[in-house]
Amino acid sequence: MTHMADEEFDIDTDDLERRMEGAMASLRTEFASLRTGRASAAMLEPVMVDAYGQPTPINQVGTVNVPEPRMVTINVWDKGLVNKVEKAIRESGLGINPQMNGTIIMLPIPELNEERRRELTKVAAQYAEHGRVAIRNVRRDGMDQIKKAKAAGMSEDDVKLWETEVQELTNRYIGAVDKALETKQAEIMQV
């Protein structure tokens, strides 16, 4: 939405939206690292391997596949890195025991018990709350920009228009967080 006041007052809603989208992106990454009972390549995203002296994501040292719902395989390209990949997974806290087969590492995904599922839904809720807080902080910045513009002489009508726009943006992203949380918790609870 562009307003006549754009020339005089710069309320950068594109920047606000970019920052809210950033909060959503990091929430999606956090959710991906939460293990459900299903195998997924995304669960390995937070795991870094010490490859050639620097932390490297697993998908940059091998091919990650999900051949069946409870199995992830990693075909490590460099034989010399197989043990490092295995060690990184073992120490990742994912609770998965890698099985070696030459340069292929197999990760059988154990079923989650009820208690562990409930724990994970709580963790997901905490991640979502962090996301909401980040979005509300961006909203506050936007409202501060509007206050400054108002002090500098922005019209009351324009102030209302901008506040409405920033609030609608916030509502949209908070809604997206809530929906993502609902989906993730359902995924975790699904047996």
UniProtKB/TrEMBL annotation:
One GO CC annotation: cytosol
Q: Which UniProt keywords apply?
A: Cytoplasm, Protein biosynthesis
Q: Tell me the GO BP annotations in alphabetical order.
A: cytoplasmic translational termination
Entry keyword Cytoplasm: yes
Molecular function per GO: ribosomal large subunit binding
One Pfam family this sequence matches: RRF
Q: Which CDD domains does the record associate with it? A: RRF
Q: What does this protein do?
A: Responsible for the release of ribosomes from messenger RNA at the termination of protein biosynthesis. May increase the efficiency of translation by recycling ribosomes from one round of translation to another.
Q: What is this protein called?
A: Ribosome-recycling factor
